[in-house]
User: Fold these one by one.
Assistant:
Number 1:
Amino acid sequence: MKTLFTFLSLSFFVMSNSQKLTSYVNPFVGTKNMGHTFPGATAPFGMVQLSPETNQVPYAIDGKYNPETYRYCSGYQYDDKTIFGFAHTHFSGVGHSDLGDFLMMPTVGKLTLEPGTAELPKSGYHSQFTKNTEKASPGFYEVVLDDYGIKAELTASERVGFHRYTFPKSTESHIILDLMSNIYNYDSKNVWTFVRVEDNQTVTGYRETTGWARTKKVFFAMKFSKPFKKYGRKRYEKVEYNGFYRKFNEDENFPEFAGRQIRCYFDFDTTENEQILVKFALSNTSTSGAMKNLEAEIPHWDFEKTKKETEAKWEKELSKIEVETLTENDKTTFYTALYHTMMSPILYQDVDGIYLDIDQNIHNAKDFTNYTVFSLWDTYRALHPLYNIIQPKRNNDFIKSMLSHARHSVHKALPIWSHYANENWCMIGYHAVSVLADAVAKNTTDADLKAMLNASVTSSNLKYYDGIGDYLKYGYVPEDKSSSSVSKTLEYAYDDWCIAQLAKKSGDKNLENEYLKRSENYRNLYNPQSGFMHPKLSDGTFKKDFDPMDTHGQGFIEGNAFNYGLYVPQNIPEMIKMMGGKNKFSKHLDEIFTTEIAEKYIEKNEDITRDGIIGNYVHGNEPGHHIPYLYNFTNDPWKTQERVRMIMRKMYSHGEDGLCGNDDAGQMSAWYVFSAMGFYPVLPGSDEYQLGSPLLISAKINLENGKTLKIRTENQSEKNVYVSKILVNGKEIKNQTLKHSDIANGGEIVFIMSGKR
């Protein structure tokens, strides 16, 4: 029996490992509650994210912010039963939103151009659907629209969305193109829309919106697989002047549509189970650019070919890390997390290399590929450091894209949070400098060091940005002059340290010393009486009525003094010493994990939800992601191992609710990928990682330099969460620290696990 069991187990292992890695990705992870991911079709880092919208929620009602809109940052909620159509642009896992461009919806029967409301079935063109017809895999999405008996299938190349709709027999088959629909929508969001019907199968145009991206223009080219028999549009805004276009009936079969609020339609006769395919290409430069993108990427009508090609692209990217896990569900959790780390930044140039930049002019990317969507307050922490291991060439392009932004910015500053040739100024800090410093420390960029340093220094001295002028004047950001003052001071001090590293690399000792001194500004806000980083006023006194548990109005953003107050990654030993030493600090960390935070402290912060909280530790938000690893700097490194393993089990899963908060453009997932492998970049900008407790049985990282790093565990189990010994290429590691060279040079890391600490 033992021999038979061994044989069956081995057979399962071989079959399991021969499966495509894409089969372990569940695109629905994070689509329930507040993960804000989307399940639709996209290529790795692709410009197109073709995904369903399951509701249309206005940003404001009666002039007041509508909290319900926050649930729809990606346009999709797993528990919804309606689909309003399929839009071509989406963010993955963000805590604010935009996009949702070019919503397409196939319908049958009497033409209705009003979307209706989800609460009233058949009140508009939206449709009911049932979950058992909905499928998603990397690069593919499928669902049946029950109200119309239409099967919708979606795939995508990098710049082109590809639709396949299977219709019933009808003389009233329609494809609606809703050019009014947006995510975070409001009446004035659409600035202008222009559409041309080039022939009876080809349509081009653009839409300009204003929102999180203040001036966002997206061009498109659309081709149908069969001619439409007629077409038309409806314009919804009040038209005060239409010039001599009043000569025409613009609503039916007129080949130009222009206006602020437009929906249009294309009509067909269909036979039973007839398929109509639509190719929809995007460009940030022109309709001719969109047409070039369409012709270059999908010149054919073979839907399955594009689907397979995009699946192969995902397989290639996922195979950069090959893992063996304790359970099959763990493998799904891991590869879905890895998948989510490659949803953004997104490609932002045409096939010929031209792109729109922050100056709203067209440029040519001659020596790099241009990207956009940089959620840097989130992603500098772990996502970009992960790229320096598995995507160094692409991360180098990200850096050059940031430098292009700085070059063409009127502020001459690096991006803060940027998308679609716009700076939206979201969150705090100027963390592109961290991305630059991390790549320099790990030798993964060939970008001009002087240009990086100059752009970083300019960003750090932009006095009119978010309290920097006061930071330079006082050595801290005063709370009476700028909100979230402690968070800003701590983040600025860390960014200053990153600039010091760039200066050191360039050989500029004076600049290095200047920024090292600035990096110590965290000291100015530590209050030994309260024992916390404490908001200080411009008169030099600490704020009275200070509550370190409160996440609102106490000097912190999306965190409190207990957790965000520990953000001094550039000098953790000194922070611990300042806060009473290793033993006291370890107890403080314990208190974070074991003290329940009352509802009153988080009720004013929509980014902090119960899903992501353990005690007072908020894993659902980024400022505390390094906290479990801080035990490594005390006398209790075993607590890092215990906490990290616990967080992986409590905060992540393979199900639809498998993210404990916004994925934040991949940062949440990157934390899991790192932690599951057993190490984490607590200090981006250095060449060091802190060791934890790997969840995997083994991992093989296939590096771009052709080398391989093997990570192996001995005695791995659910109970054996502690690490008794770590060997790097046979040599024991004593200080809980891994060097980047240990990874980049390949070799083997062995974690010997134990149930005893």
Number 2:
Amino acid sequence: MLRSMVERPLNEVLVGRDGFVALIATAGAGKTTLLRQWEAADSRPFIRLAAADASDAVAIVTGATGPVVVVLDDVHRHPDGGAFVVRSLAELTLQPGIAVVVSGRAVDRRALTAMRLRPDLVDLSDADLALDERAAREVLGGHVGEEELRRVLRRTRGWAAGLQLARVALGRRSGDEDPEFTGADRVVRDYLQSEVLDDLGDELTGFLLHCAPFDELSGPLCDAVRGSSDSQELLERLEREHLFVSALDREGRRFGWLPLAREALAAELDRRDPTEAKRLRTVGADWLAAHGDARTALALRLANGDREQALHLLSEVVLPMFYAGQLEEIVGIIHAIGPDIAITHGYLATMFAYAGMMTGDEVCARRWTKAAGDFYQVHSFGDGDEQVAFLALRAHLCADGVQRMRRDAEAARVRVKESSPWRAPVLMMSGIAAGLCGDARAAHRLLEEAAHVSAELRATPALMLALSERLELHSGRVSADAIAHAVDAAEGGPFTHYPHAALGYALRAEAAAIAGDKDAAHRDLLRAHGYRAALGRELPWLAVQVRLRIARATASLGDPAGARLVLAEAEEILAGLAETGILKKQAADLAAALRPLGGADAVGASLLTSAELRLLPLLPSHLSFEEIGDRLHLSRNTIKTQARSVYRKLGVSSRSEAVQHATQLGLVSA
């Protein structure tokens, strides 16, 4: 199946080896390729026996007068799954130099158990045959870049046939605009039909197709969607016969797919019977929602186009997902539901606005806040959490100054229930607003409570910002342990891309700079600079706080010009606020402190504007300048101008050089 016989390191284990080898794996896993490579590298003769000749195997092994490798091929095609002949072989005492290989997609359970009792067994399965990144790159050739290579590997998990099918499909693309390779591609569906489904009976084929809409399988779920009681037994059979399903737990109660195969089977089901496919997703979504998995139920509702039902489920999962570090997934779900429905649903418009705010998309944040406000001027709030969410959103945006921010936060705090998942961010915002209004005593009390509740609810984003904001209230130095507590919350999980982490890194950079630890200060400054692009007018108070801390740290490192550049950004954001509380005085005090310092040229990341930092992470992608402009709501010419400015400031002349240099500086991920 492979275009070329990619060298497999397993040969080092097999060449010259005596005893038993069980080579039981999925169709297209590369069993034949491995056997050919082994035969080419081994000095012994290979005798390969097909199903029709299997009865000769015992006589050949017992009668062998010298070293030999006897291969019982396609054991799954034997009438009894190799039960008799394999068990007979497993009872033999093999002479030195003799190896017995049992190869196929499945083998009788008792025969496999008999082999596994032998101390000389080498047991190879799909995971052992999976191709690694180097081998996958060799198979795919020049058709893919690094990002697409990783996507293909995630889908195929190194499955040799899947990688070869990807090579064929991607080689047919006419340009970069073609969709990415998935299991829905016809070449994958045709392969599964001819190489797998045609060999199965109606029972297993139907089971595979009817379970394909679901990423994770269990006996009860499959029974519910099929109206049956034998699904657990069939799932175990699929795993035993290496039909793209394997257990996810040691008890064998939860099962997962080879992703590419699941996509292909789901696409085939949609092609054959779209009505049945939709019914299965509906039944499955209802069952999953009733059994506590609203997140998966939501994805199924979206796949069905059931936006009203999806909206109901979204209200249940959005905060748990946000607290779990799944901000990007939330954004994807919101876009999948579609923006038009948000105009007629205040809570969804609020969630759209939150997503824009947390990802630095000011246009999205402002647009959907207005849409939510317009909706609630006409309609009443659906429940207490709906009103609390909207008030907390307005407090975050601080559009009318810090006094209005505090009133909104306090109104939300009065209304939020003790059991509400919104309690953590509401307490956090109340404390922050009190601090910005100069009420340090109330701020300390509220932020202390916010940190406690956030830890209790595992609301990590609220926890790390509450801890940082509590430190922000201190006029003098704060302890390294207190700063570490604030930053550790971000670094202990998938939260470093949240804007909530920015202040912690800026605080730690300033502390390190004051302590004279320049290397540590530079590392954390680069992390803090990375948030400047996502922190602007959609979170103005935090944007200013972070920039002031960055500027102080930069000045402490002997770069007053760089500090002034970042301070100027803070002052520009402050100019757009109706009422600034203590922030304006903090900026003025810093400006006064910087005035006597020298005017050396700015260095490092301080040179880049927020707009340029927003562009920088998109340069390594496959997106064109026009596509980047669409994503950032800017024209192609504006993006091109910003890119040239980035090149100039980084001292490079091309997009690839800019990516390389920015990666070395730590401004973009490697």
Number 3:
Amino acid sequence: MNSIDTLLKSSDFHESAVGHVQGTAPYVDDMPLIEGTLHGVVVLSSRAAGALSHVDWVWAQSQEGVSGVVTGSDIPGSSKLATYVADENIFAESEIAYHGQVLGLVVAKRREVAARVANSVPMQIDAKAPTLDARQACAQSSFVLPSVHLERGALDAGWQESVYQLSGKLEVGGQEHFYLEGQVAYAIAQADGRWEIYSSTQHPGEVQHWVAHALDIPMHQVRVICRRMGGGFGGKETQAGHLAVWAALAANKFKVPVKVRLDRKDDMLVTGKRHPFSHEWHVGFDADGRVKAFESLQMAHCGHSADLSGPVADRAIFHTDNAYWLPAVKVTSHRCKMNTQSHTAFRGFGGPQGVILIETVMGDVARCLKKDALDVRLQNLYGIQERNITPYGMEIEDNVLEALITQLATDCQYRVRREEIKQWNAQSESLKKGLALTPVKFGISFTATQFNQAGALVSVFTDGSVLVNHGGTEMGQGLHTKVCLVVARTLGISEQRVRISASDTDKVANASATAASSGTDMNGRAAEYAALRIKKNIADCLAKNDGCFADEVTFIDDSVVTPRHKRSFEEAVQFAYKQRVQLWSDGFYATPKINYDPKTLTGRPFYYFSYGAACSEVAIDLLTGEYKLLRTDILHDVGRSIHPEIDIGQIEGGFLQGVGWLTTEELVWDQDGKLLTQGASTYKIPTAADVPEELTVSLWMEENREANVGGSKAVGEPPFMLGISVFEALRDAVGSVRDSTTPVELDAPATPERVLKAVTRVREVD
């Protein structure tokens, strides 16, 4: 038996593992093209702001090999994308909003021809100075959405109770998604005015909506299909829709299939990133480090349009407390309009930008009091029966923070290592070490309540094989694998019997995006409900035949057992089929308990919380600012894991992606608004070399206290914020340079240059 056969007969492997290893798993760009297919390449603006006075489309069309161009005049429907704010043009019109804004397409039989011409189209833009600074945008009242305010508790009393007060600023950079598979769409016209769109998207339903809106046709005439993505991380939640619209418009004009794919440079220029944030804060606290009052001004860098900036900035507010009770708090959130790409969803969806703020505050409070930062964090944790209401009014009912953090501190010998590092730093002049243990509390659910629903279809065939379809999408995170496992375990059969089909708007209508870490929670539950209906149908049939009750029928080990007979699963299925029993079913799930008022930012926006903590140790070179991550220990709450190996992989990957956001991944725009970091040569994502030699991941396996599928908890986004432990460890190392109570000023990403400047500032403190 060869290794592939062994893998196929093993249990619980990723449903696309063989294809991934062999390179045979097809993505949109791998699809064989229909004869006559054309390729569209985007024409990008060469300025970040100004009046667009001319684009020489006549020149473009006249070039050898070019089939034609697509512009705003070729849009049958609305010229606006069908976003919830409707503030973004499909193609730029009279005003340019950012460098790299799409003006139209050049279409040709050969992509290289279209690309050469698209990159050379003459244009005239009467440039003006772009708005690139969030504080400038605030001064100009330049916002994509109205500002939001949240206040809870008696602030005046909190300030009076505060023995100490601190203020500070924190700049938090954005992050490029850098998915391995870039943005791509393939549009094919069908008979009767129907369309098939193959899209690398986290939200097929939204792509369907956007394409129908642009073509001015009903949604039922548009079918969107996605078998898998080569990564998404939020970057394909809304922004995949742009390419689908462009491809559909071109296919509609030229009456042939059209494929649009962005190369890495254009992808980085055109698409949005994680929102950078500019923070200003003021905190009051007592001699033990307990926070009494906290004020936060949050300026989200949204780019030129709203996209998902509203809910992203809202979630940043919701996670500004992170793990801590804030008795009196005031948050003001500005959604700043700037001449950059329209920033969008990214793993954590604003949560990380809120969590890093309060964690830096906790670190500075500890430094002010000359206390261990872990002790300050423990002092401020949410309680169980009291001190357990969030600033937005949600009661925390599943708090495991103190027990989890204490367990991790014990397991990783935090106290012992803290003393060892203190002694090491006292003897080392050019190298300093830092240590930090930071927690995360992350709410699970879409804050837009209507998205907390999912559907699935399960079909059992007469040979005992099972096909599953659901509204979620697979981007490598293992969603399809987990859903198949849920169905297999529900029916008592081996997972090898269960296969998944592509995500398809013709199968499950109105499906929500695969986002908010709720893909398994919702789609897994919907598939489970569908499988339970089939299971009941078979059980009722066999019980009637065997003279027993349906609840006496058991499904186990690929068999169906009644008090009188034991049948193989396929025998039971075939018997039920002959009795004309329905062997397929749909399932629908709506997340319970949640309610949320977006006008007041109050209610219960989350079904439950996921918790975790990480302890990281670093060393920095005081002469160069270079540093190394030496060790990280993680303890993360996943509930009763459906698939521990996938969960551990998600924790490791999320953690390292968070480390990249806060250390190496720096987005740079020049003074004219041009993004300078346009590829792997200038934008540095973490590599295997950045993984600490000592990395330990343990699972906190307490069952979810809410009735979630299999007792599990979401694991997609929460681990991302564990990377903040590295940022805080770097600040701890910088602070060890001098015995001072002054806050450590270090912005993110903490590049070696910024670390060196932070060291210099600490040394210069009076």
